[in-house]
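Forwarding the complex inputs:
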Amino acid sequence: MTLRWDVALAILAMGLVTYLCRAGGYAVLRAVRTPPFIDALLRNLPAPLFAAYVALALSRQDAAAAIASIPCALVHLRWKNFALSIVAGVGAIALLRWAGM
Amino acid sequence: MVPLPSPFYTVPMRITFTRAGMMRGAWRGLPLLIGTAPFGAVVGVIALGRGLSLGETILMSGVVFAGASQLLALELWTDPPDIMAAAIAALVVNIRMVPIGAAMSFWLDALRGWRLWGSLFLTVDQSFALSVAAHREGERDAGFLFGLGILTWIGWVVFTAAGHILGSVVALSPQNPLFFAATASFVAILAALWRSPRQDVPPWMLAAGTAIAAQALRLPPPLPLLSGAFAGAILAAVRETRAPRLPKEENRA
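Prediction (whole assembly, two chains):
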């Protein structure tokens, strides 16, 4: 079990930033009210972030990945279960690869 | 429900923090662990694929304790690690948690010291959602959130470690369909955030288009991701804050 100091430092930086989001937000928002636009911006950041991520990830993969994303999304919309959606996505791409894509 | 004398309904009950409350929270969170397990295993496998040791994977899950940001940071991971890129990935994904603490002031305002700062550390999207639901049902014990958080934290560390161990035992090739699980996780998260075509299609398309364009312009990571995320979020925020307001209620009184 090794622990590189540079890897540990990157992880601790992530942990610090994440804790600041969790705790700092509570501490600051208790004292001041954020403007409605900033509030809306913070609330609306995750979805476009993941949309951008998926677009970039699919642009670097083959057509099978893009196709496999469809059952993955549909399964999640239908059953709202992350485990099932991931299984559907991985199963779909395994099937497509097996079929020769 | 057991009928209570009327004063119990009308007088707001004091917020407590007890072991019994923690147990109730942990009990309510137990079924959610089944959903967390595969996601944790995916993060463990991807961490292995990026060359992180088991100890480093456990450290990351223990101190960051935020799956989507861990996955994103690992996707952008380099060797040697880019500390700034990892911190930015964590910031952009987790900035959504800023309003969560304030939204749980119904319990947190009654806490001090380790109970408060520990509860904040242990808060994730699911425990937030469950806590709001429990509070609406009349739960007045802030230990609920803490107990739920501890259980989720232990589960998260165990599941990511298990994914790392499993991946090293099976020795997966980079072509293995299992690695599509990272993309599939984000597709599922995206599906979970879907509200309506009118609200979501324009910002999501702008985000995707901006990211792809930035990548085509050969901007270094994580700039394509960040420019896409902020372009989409700004559009969504502009549309939301400029939405036509409903007739004001207070004027009627």
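The mean pLDDT of chain A is 89.
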